[in-house]
Amino acid sequence: MAVATKTAPAVAEDRELLISGSEAVAEALALADIDVVTAYPIRPYDTVMQAIAKKIANGQLVAEYIVAEGEHSQFEVVKHASTVGARVFCGSSGVGWAYAMECLVVTPPLRVPMVAMVGNRALDDPGAFGVEHNDALFVRDLGWMLVWIDSSQEALDTTLIGYRLAEDRRVFLPLAISADGAFLTHSQALTLVPPKAKVERFLPPYNRGDLLLHPDNPITVAPQANEDWVIEIRRQNNEAMARAVIVIEEAYADFRTIFGRGPENPWFEEYMTDDAEIILVGMGTISLPIKVGIRNMRAQGKKVGLVRLRWFRPFPTDRLVAALSKASVIGVIDRDYSFGSPFGSGVVANEIRAAMYNAPKRPPLVSFICGLGGREVTLEDVYKVTDLCYNAAKTGKSDTKTHWLGVRE
Amino acid sequence: MSALICEVVYRGIFQKNLASRITRGIVLSARKSGRWGIAFGRYGDSPQRNGIPAKDFAIVADTKEELEQNMARYEPKHVDVTICVDDTLAKGVESWAWYGLQPINRLTLPNGTLLMTSLQPFEDLLRDIHKKDEPYTLAVIRARASFSGLWVYKEDHTEVRILGALAKIAPEFLTLDGVCQAIGEMEWGSELKVASVRKAYERLEARQIQPGEGNAEVPYAFELPRWWEMREGVTIPAIPIGKPKEGGKGYVPERNPYFKKFTTRTMRPVVDFDTCVKCNLCWIACPDSCFDVMPDGTFDANMEACCGCGVCEAVCPVESCITMVNEAVFEDNASQWDMWRKDKTAYKTWLTDKITNKKATVRSHGFRFRGQYEEEIKTDLDAGGAEITAGIPGENAKHKTI
Ligand code: SF4
Ligand code: SF4
Q1: Among B135, B155, B236, B365, which is most exposed with the fewest C-beta within 10 angstroms?
Q2: Whether B292 contacts B250, CB under 8 Å
Q3: Contacts with A370 from chain B: Cβ below 8 Å
Q4: Closest protein CA for atom 4 of ligand 2
Q5: Average pLDDT, integer, range A152-176
Q6: Could you report the per-residue pLDDT of A75-88, keeping only the tens digit for each?
Q7: In chain B, what are the domains?
Q8: Ligand 2 centre from B299 Cα, in Å?
Q9: pLDDT of B369
């Protein structure tokens, strides 16, 4: 069974540390007092694995730290540990995440509430460390909850919220927290680290209940199940994902009460959208240049806003449709690709097109692919995106072409 | 609304921890006056490779919003202060293929500052530092390059001396008191280090550099190909085989034109062709295939390609036939063999001058003899450095978290 880390010296207030997104996740893991963590290095995820190792070495966290021989074993080990009642953490990046795919697939049906960090990275070849979101998106259809963050503070807070959400018996699904390689995993910012006492009020111990694999609770996990059983199991998963919507709302509300920070709308951040003609949509740290661009464009009288999508699974269909329907034009910037997809768009753009299908008001949508392989998204890119959206506003029609930006043409 | 943007240009492995301490120190010092800040490394760099030039950045600003512009970037477009912690980097920086040779002051803003640790006079540094069209300040802390490793750290106070100097250069962002206070609270701080901050603040040397002053060399650069010009299938053409030299008696291999990486080195081999016994060992052992075969059977170390690892010196069986010499004492990458063939006496004089220069042949990283560190610290002390006392210098036991 889990060994509890000794209580840290009493600190009543938040401490401010200069830490990267990965280090912020590690801080949260120590606060959540995880029991088992598995590791296998790949950049940029390896930064979190180093940070946890350091915490264990310094005696700030008592946990089983297992270096696996590859990502496949890495994810298998935590899956098993979770079924016997351990709070677990794991993660990877790019093709490492892909190598774990067989285990990633079985984690949701077994109802393993693990939290993983994906340090978003391009899929090799060619060898490249830069951010693309296709790695985490591999599991978008499988019952993994997926969230994107854009600051060290959000990394820490979302990790705590993540355990509370995943381990809620109504949910019991795995969660992958996506952190953009470089811009979040390797950039240190001033971050508030709460005292353990607050975290204990927010996060109850992991209780696997009737699903605990234990001699006192004899069960078999994952027997062979053919056509008589499988669709029912999928139906259960679907239900759990639907219930996650309610639990996410609850968890964020509680987080705000206890920690005194965090968003009112868990699903997405709205930046200057109140009066916006053009609403741009993106996930992750792409928000940073877009916000700067928006401030500059507003100074010239252009009414532009941003919806930064945090939660991709479960997808906040109704709320997002309501927020986007206000715009004259929606511009979706994907940091991913889906070759041969409708309109050649990225995953987020097509998801939003699908979500908007039944909406009473459907503004024209222009889709963009930008920043692949970690290419910087520049202010010029943001201005160009906005100009193309204004063109669509004039014609009142969706652009059927997907625009690639920042490519050497 | 204002911000201070600093870069630290350092050498992979040997100075990775140093650079990280400096950038964190900048943010935490500025925090003492209520500033916000971020610290990050240039993600595309490979600072785990020995000696490769790499960069860390620290940005501090009045508001969090001002930081946003720089947060999703690999590298700021301009910096107020370039901090260079090894003066051999004054020749320029090339950290990856297709970067070209980037002058050390490339990002330094007009009227900004290039802050270096160096024992060289300003004139010598300016022979290496590329000229700019705008004026800037060259500031120098008198110290030799602080080299250590990933797992060991040389507590020679370089990090705090840099921070002390910054308090002089950018007092609006880093007050001397703020720096001292931050250092006092660091895990690696100490009272001795606070004293070093103050000394560096007092003893910083600075000179205004005029437009056009400096090395006139035009650094090599590339234009990156467009998507439709690139080969498909993630393929690149192989490097062609080399050319025979002087009627087939010698041989010069082709080398990667897009990544020369000579800025990786802090020392270079100097070859005495008169004592060379043509044993081939340097040619076999050089991990970067730097040796060109000369028509007379000797080997010329190609200075465009050499990363300065010192393996050739180690394997050469003849005493003083290959000697590693500090990069700072060379002006260009010209062929030593050509120089030797043209005028053997002049070459002998040149060679003797280089290899008998005690200062230039002392190892810049790693130590040759027990006590070398203490000797170096002593020299630095004469130049304003810190005292070394019993115990582990810089340990700030009371601030250790556990
Ligand atoms: S120092 Fe010698 S062995 Fe090392 S790269 Fe240069 S020529 Fe080759
Ligand atoms: S190892 Fe020394 S002696 Fe042998 S060929 Fe090279 S320079 Fe000459």
Answers
A1: B236
A2: yes
A3: none
A4: B279
A5: 98
A6: 999 999 999 999 99
A7: 3-209 (3.40.920.10), 236-257+267-361 (3.30.70)
A8: 7
A9: 53
Give which of A402, A170, A157, A371 is closest to A283, Cα–Cα: A371
Residues 120-179 of chain A with CB under 8 A from chain B are 125-126, 129-130
Mean pLDDT on A112-127: 96
d(CA A34, CA A239): 27
Give the distance from residue A191's alpha carbon to the nearest chain B alpha carbon, in angstroms.
Answer: 10
Q: Is B290 in the pocket of ligand 1 (CB under 6 A)?
A: yes
Confidence of residue B389 (pLDDT cuts 50, 70, 90): very low
Q: Distance (Å, rounded) from C-alpha A252 to C-alpha B120?
A: 58
The domain A268-404 is placed in CATH, from the list 3.40.50.920, 3.40.50.10240, 1.10.357.10, 2.60.40.10, at 3.40.50.920
Same fold, A15-259 and A268-404: yes
What CATH fold (topology level) applies to the domain A15-259?
Answer: Rossmann fold (3.40.50)
pTM value is 0.93
For residue B311, the ligand closest to its alpha carbon is: 1
Residue B373, class by beta-carbon neighbours within 10 Å (0-12 exposed, 13-18 middle, 19+ buried)?
middle
Q: Mapping DSSP to helix (H, G, I), strand (E, B) and coil, where does residue B267 land? A: strand
Domain spans of chain A, in order of start: 15-259, 268-404
So what's the ipTM on this one? 0.93
Q: Which of A220, A315, A208, A308 is closest to A268 using CA atoms?
A: A308
Question: What is the residue-wise DSSP string for B292-361?
Answer: EEPTTS-EEE-TTT-----HHHHH--STTTEEEEEGGG------HHHHHHH-HHHHHHHHHHHHT-HHHH
